[in-house]
Amino acid sequence: MPDRANGDRPQTRLGVRKTYKLFIGGAFPRSESGRSYPVHSPGGDLLAFAAKASRKDLRDAVVAARGAFAGWSGATAYNRGQVLYRVAELMEGRAAQFAAEVKAAEGLRRGPADAVVAAAIDRWVWYAGWSDKVAQVAGAANPVAGPYFNFSVPEPTGVVAVLAPAESSLLGLVSVLAPAIVTGNTAVVVASEHRPLPSVTLAEVLATSDVPPGVVNVLTGIRAELAPVAAAHMDVNALDVTGAPLGERGALQVAAACNLKRVYADHERWDEPPGTRRLLSPLEIKTVWHPAGI
Amino acid sequence: MSAIEPTQAAPADQDALAWEYAPAPESRDIVTIAPQYGLFIDGEFRPAAEGATFATLNPASEEKLAEVAKAGPADVDAAVTAARHAYDRVWGPMPGAERAKYLYRIARVLQERAREFAVLESLDNGKPIRETRDVDIPLAAAHFFYYAGWADKLEYAGFGLDPRPLGVAGQVIPWNFPLLMAAWKLAPALAAGNTCVLKPAETTPLTALLLAEVCQQVGLPPGVVNVLTGAGETGAAVVTHPDIDKIAFTGSTEVGKQIAAAAAGTSKKVTLELGGKAANVVFDDAPVEQAVEGIVNGIFFNQGHVCCAGSRLLVQESVADIVVERLQRRLTTLRLGDPLDKNTDIGAINSREQLDKITELSAAGDAEGARRWSPPCPLPGRGYWFPPTVFTGVSQSHRIAREEIFGPVLSVLTFRTPEEAVAKANNTPYGLSAGIWTDKGSRILWMAQRLRAGVVWANTYNRFDPASPFGGYQESGYGREGGRHGLAAYLDA
Known about the structure:
- The structure holds two protein chains of two kinds.
- Chain A is an alpha/beta fold.
- In chain A, 41% of the residues lie in helices and 17% in strands.
- In chain A, strand 5, helix 6 and strand 6 form a beta-alpha-beta unit.
- In chain B, helix 3 (96-112) packs antiparallel against helix 5.
- By secondary structure, chain B is an alpha/beta fold.
- Helix content of chain B is 39%, strand content 16%.
- Classes of the chains: A alpha/beta, B alpha/beta.
- The interface between A and B is large, with 35 and 43 residues.
């Protein structure tokens, strides 16, 4: 120990550590339960304590997501695209921080961690551009046999509960979150249980970009505790079980049948082009008829 | 509240309405109903393995039409095995252009035998011949014709360069549009290259069995389409069969949830077309007579046995009086009776069970304080009948405003502002359809954007077309039937 009484300065500056909190309704609360849990690197080092979200926190997050749905889904597609592109801009500015967190969370070397962050930012940009194109790809003017104008448009299904991938803490997270919200859904994300820290930093990016509060809500905690509550919640419209192991998915799907949630259960590789399957999943097709006449 | 008090007085032009129509019955001689029907498995009709049968009735007379085989687990297994074999050996490998020609053949024979199908449908279902003749049967043929053309164009449908069929589809359909629902299920499935095990509704098996005969007549390879008649347990055995790759169900939300839960943890792909409680929203600037026709068509078409029926009339308060009065006047001109009479507007309720449900829910409307009105409407002495019924003074909490009645019962509610109309229309766990009546184009589009429903009819109602996607939001199910979107339900897309 340096002898501070003699006016000696510490040899290195002591870092200011971050408190990793939940992200609900645009705010960063601790869990209402007061709980936290230690997060370790694959090597066993203590990285931080993360908030351990409770079932109540999840319900609060659904309320926030439902509240944000009308505004976000009602925004113009151009506006949503701009807002999401802005997120990518801010991610770029925090690339070094993301890389350090991904490196620590996933036990990667610096080069691969940088590559993962770059891929995550690029993927976010790719999805941002879909906002004002998806209706043209998934919609239609339908040639019905009668004097009617008839068209179909995709619409967001509502509140989507997303179980983020367990392994890929940033690229995987981005790959499941961006396609859910770009079309106007709002999301409640259950972050990777053992690798949650990059999700909190992404939440900080979302909070300082122009994403309206409640559009994305991020919960860190124990998946087995939170996922069944999300699956059984009557005001959640869709459930992405990507982050749940195969053995847990059946029970989640049974619970999700309570209000006929749309369940997405495909498996993807995050380092491959994502395609449109996931993008088109939390969408409803609305068909509108009107007579044509004079 | 008095704004929409029903008028019990007869309309002023009563004399004009008092004309009697001469009977104009369609001949039932065109169709031959066999005393017994078997299951259609692997291209042949055969009795159920356990020999079980059940009767199908004419709901307009309670006359027994035929005895029909009741498929058990062994029959389900045989049908799935036949379908799997046909998928692996014949239908899957067949070029799309060849599949297309089979579907075109089916469409043509349906057109050629249309009157026969129409009469049989009216006999077995109870719906008026005017509807089977002009809606059910032509649309069924149109569905086969539409999807036939997709069979050799799948790579251009926007589902990737080489979209693959799913395999064997288990399809369970309801009794309200028996042949049309069979066409909605079979046509896209077959076009995409799947093979099918179809389970028609217990009370309306006959047109599906006649369609099976058509499959034979057009030379469809054995096993491509199998028809298993039976009740709920037969349907359950179909959807839970381990060798089914795809489940398509149209029916109640309650059963839909059971199916979703049963398919959990499996690789089965599921589409569900379930219940509804649609709002039909009438604004003060709507042409009243047109709106009234739309209201009538919305709830009294097919005796209200329509999942997308406009069963909640939301009428703007300032015109509620006149809309209800005109509606009542119009309802006094509807003709209820013999489904085979070409002048009949309202046919029979499909079954005793459904009649009991309608009766029970209507009694709940009385008990909860809504006011019931029906036109003077003598009901036939035999068969299952329920008069066109309008409840006014309905609040959102009433059961008749929340639960699907699936009968000729309209609940009238009022609103003042467009925002209130949207809030009330969306205040339901369902989300299948909605109607808008207004002369203002911008308001139509504003409403259409906000109504959480899969089909929005503006200044029209209950229109259907094979090119038009149909299906619900929320607890009205998932997936779409019709159009390019309907193909996705049967492709690995």
